[in-house]
Fold these 2 entries.
Entry 1:
Amino acid sequence: MALVLHGYRYSVYTRIARLVLAEKGVAYGRVEVDPFAADRPADDANLHPFGRVPTLVHDGFVLYETAAITRYLDRAFAGPHLQPAAPRAAARMDQTIGIVDAYGYWPMVRQVFAHRVLRPAAGRPADEAEVAHGLAGSAKVLAALESLAEPHGFLVGPDLSLADLHVGAMVAYLAMAPEGLALLQRQPRLAAWWDTVGRRPSFALTAPGLPTP
Ligand SMILES: N[C@@H](CCC(=O)N[C@@H](CS)C(=O)NCC(=O)O)C(=O)O
């Protein structure tokens, strides 16, 4: 059995797939692919027609789009089930993942984290206007998640689900920016959820660190 994840160290979507693999206890290989590199090898680019990461390759089965990858991993491998069976909990999980993909990734990761944390760490210029727009967008997303979150425990019920890992990877990056953490702390359910979920070993195991100048 060959299971290989092609992804990038700092990619939040790659981390989501890695979190799922860690929670399920599945062994896999990794191929490091920088989707932002100008000289990306054609073999890697060919795996993903949109030039993004991650892509999963399982015994010749090639799969891209993180939400598809994580659902596949959950169905194809043993370990804890990360998708609730009840229709409404499953719908909330899908909705929560859809919200952060559609409305959260850009402001939380590409604007706040990239410009407040990643670029300065790498010695690259940051754009304060991007941070400001990102904080406004992130506030809206966190408010929506707060209104949907269960009062205690995990985002969509009593057990860990793909929603916790998908949102958690993005919140982990947002919370590395002081203003991002402050936004999170204004949402009591989400702040309590992150205080528990963010301490799971899978998050420590997949922490990407930061580049140096
Ligand atoms: N819809 C894709 C999004 C993946 C994505 O945007 N990945 C980022 C890294 S976190 C990327 O490859 N960005 C490269 C680029 O924007 O050119 C998924 O769910 O996998």
Note: Residues 11-13, 35-36, 51-53, 65-67 surround glutathione (CB under 6 Å).
Entry 2:
Amino acid sequence: MQNELLALARPEIVAMSAYRSARSEVAKGIVWLDANENPWSDGLYNRYPEPQPYSLVSDLATLYGLKPDQLLVTRGSDEGIDLLVRLFCRAGQDQILICPPTYGMYKVAATIQGAAIVEVPLLKEQGFALNLAKMLEIWQPGIKLVFLCSPNNPTGNLLAVPDVLSLCKKLNNKSIIIVDEAYVEFSASDSLIKYLDDYPNLVVLRTLSKAYGLAGIRCGVTVANPEIIQLLKKIIAPYPIPEPIVNIASNQLSLNLIEDQIKIIYQERDRLFGFISNLPFVKKVWKSNANFLLFEVSSSKKVMDICLNNGIVLRDRSSEYNLNNCIRVTIGSPVENTFFMEVLSRV
Ligand SMILES: Cc1ncc(COP(=O)(O)O)c(C=O)c1O
């Protein structure tokens, strides 16, 4: 890694020797007497799993067009967020920069780590675009990480690629730019992974929780240059990926359901968009590049209550910056969406 980038990480993490778990020391053997496990394998799971299961890492590298040393598999991308904050931010000294309204875990991870939060809100009147000029104006050396989310949760818009790349370039050697692409498969845009070699301070977060339908197995991927990945491996728990996850993930990926499902999500997103836009109590619906829609109503509480009384659970985003009376609805199955529309028409 360039020395300047290495200098952004917490010096004590760069200097420390990682814990060497039994399976990270020797991966091949016949008689395993190194990890104090139970020798009987009736339950199939008597052995610790590989720290970064080889077959899962190679499946994900193929899926995202990466070399295996450019990715780290984590317990959901939430763990990637947490590890990045712990790697780069010194408690009481460093900060992260976020652009609200956005995904809540960046703030939570920073607060847990004792890192302060600097906010430069998205520009609501410009479709929640980045305020690039303001971000550069307020930047100062304590800001180690910039968290961007594209498509953004909960607003659903893509951030302009030239804005993101310009930020990477201008803050090269100064900050790590993390682009959370949890919803990118639902969007009209390619992943920024293809820019990884050109922008050493770019980190991309991906997940199997959304388009791949595997939220229940907690499988996220942090994509970065190999030196950052090496440092993250020092601080991740010794055996984060449970053995059964590997097979579940590779089976699901081999089924290749995603294309057909995304086509249906697109149709349903359009159908819901049209319906919600025409309701008298709806003030605005935002165009979405994700598998959800954000809409503003006269009273979010009233809509939430009526939906919940009919068993429909939505997310009231009123407490988020600039989103008073805004509700986020996930695009469900066609049957679920039809029921949701019926209930909405009764409001
Ligand atoms: C933008 C964004 N990033 C990350 C996550 C967390 O995903 P995972 O299930 O991979 O931890 C979510 C979950 O809703 C999200 O909306």
Note: The CA atoms of residues 147 and 277 lie 31 Å apart.
